From TrEMBL:
Protein name, per record: Trk system potassium uptake protein TrkA
Domain RCK C-terminal: residue ranges: 142-226, 367-452
CC per GO annotation: plasma membrane
InterPro entries xref list: K_uptake_TrkA, NAD(P)-bd_dom_sf, RCK_C, RCK_C_sf, RCK_N, Trk_Ktr_HKT_K-transport
Taxonomic placement: Bacteria, Pseudomonadati, Pseudomonadota, Gammaproteobacteria, Chromatiales
Name of the coding gene: trkA_1
A Pfam family the protein falls into: TrkA_C
Amino acid sequence: MKIIVLGAGQVGAGIAVEMANEANDLTVVDQNPVLLKKLQDRLDIRTVVGNASSPTTLIDAGIEDADLLLAVTSRDETNMVACQVAHSLFSTQKCLARIRSTDYLQYPALFSPTAVPVDYIISPEKLVTRHIQHLIEEPGVLQVLDFIDGRARMAAVEAKSAGSLLGVRLRDLPSYMPDHEFRVVAVFRDNTSIQLDGQTRIQVGDEVFFIAACEDIAAILVGFRESGKRYKRIIIAGGGNIGEKLALSLENNYQVKLIEIDEAHALHMAKTLQNSIVLLGDAADADLLKQENIENTDVYCAVTNDDEANILSSMLAKRLGARKTLCLINRSSYVDIAQGSAIDIAVSPAQITIGALLAHIRRGDVLAVHSLRRGAAEAIEIKVHGDRQTSRAVGRSIGKLSMPEGVSIGLIARGEQLVFPHKDVCIESGDHIVIFLTDKRRIKDVERLFQVGVTFV
């Protein structure tokens, strides 16, 4: 696939790393030659220095025969104009754009073939807000991901000694929770994926990934750790786009306080939010946090645009007694350092956005992609097509599929039915399959397994 990426920032660079390792013809465009040089030193890709929305620049990048344009610069207007130019002058097959401003997003009619021809809009703030909201709705999880149009979720949890399922063989788990169907798809022990079979037992400290119907997640979580109280009191540090959207999404179900350092913006937030308390001040002010009873706060969410400020205020909040700290971190190099210290969950907007983009880049009918464990693992939802003659999977039982190492099928959606697979379940055309890859480098093998071949024998 010939792909042009406009923008070499966190998202553009992340996409370049993902796709360059998958034998794609990739060109990255940016006005900053230093960013492009860093990418070229790491990856075997083409780069073009120039204005991303300029027809001349796009021609230099190879737009005339490109399969896909990803406009992910930091400016919405540049992304929109680039898609317009690509569609109008070069009939580019597919254009995706990152749009951040709510001024544009509140008018869906703006994005259409007869207006601004964007085939798919990526809104990082919307994606990140939904991700954090899910983490708050499911106490105790490290990650929680939606599949099958929100009917199923995959959750990651660190196993604790109080969990009733610890020490139980995987084959015996159903008998311990007969009212809740689920499947463990991966276990990481000491940051390494372990081989799973029916005899595997969950140990304290394991990072367990499992998938279940949405309504069963909370009950199953209790099996891997102590029963977690539902969160009630939330403090949000930062009233930017994400902070505002997060407060709006939570304030009707939780006691929300939002801290904003800019007076004019704090006044705007006070008018916008109906059931939240808006505080003017510095989230790194220990006296302010104590005054607002940080020791009784269930979740402290640091979501400003400053990574260092988020990390430091989260560490302070934890030291002062916050039950859980959640920190927004843009720099990927900071994520691994921060997570697991005083910061319970580090959220990477770039990784979340990249996952949404990958769903439109992967070959085959891929409906959802989630990047896991800081990009090392991946979970995808794929729709199966073909028949026994044209597909390596259709009409065959899971036990007879040549599944790559480290790849497991977690769930099959067949119409309205959710099927938790075992080796005798046969794949049918039209099935939606949720697949977990402990090593995302296996994605090509998965695509080949489920792709339709006209002359497959």
